[in-house]
RNA polymerase sigma-70 factor (Sigma-E family) (Amycolatopsis jiangsuensis), 181 residues
Amino acid sequence: MVSRSRPKSGPGSPWDGEFARYFGERAHSLRATAYLLCGDWHRAEDLTQAALLKLYLAWPRLERHDALDAYARKVVLRTFLAENRRSRWKRERLTDLPPDVAAPPAADETDPLIRQALAVLGPRQRAVLVLRYFEDLSVEETAEALGCSTGTVKSQAARGLATLRTRLGPHFATLPVHGGR
């Protein structure tokens, strides 16, 4: 009887070159999506690295490499949502005193108004708006990525946009999140 074992991950794996090529082509885009979800470049880098590690470990089991972008985006999204669930108790607390050291400003590609607007939303609403209006996914594709119904996507998008309208007032019209397919 011949025992078939699954190929092992690690340096020298048969799929290393293929994964490295995918990583080189898509890491920047995944990091940008992660940034829109969390609003912090360092955290976005961590989310992207964690997601790409998960993708690398799953690589030999993936049958449809033509659907990698959707799968990778879903892994980034689920990593973000799982991190938010785990770290609820670790969130920053507001105080009367300023922090000891100011954080250095990050080089940013995203409009500060958009970052501030997304920061007021909960993680699920933020995820829906990022996927729908920044990643330009359809309602169905967003529902698939989030693992929820299309009705949930529609209601979360409507609530998120209503919150942004209320908080931003006349600035809302300048955001690219008030359209969509």
Observations:
- Residues 64 and 71 are 10 Å apart (CA to CA).
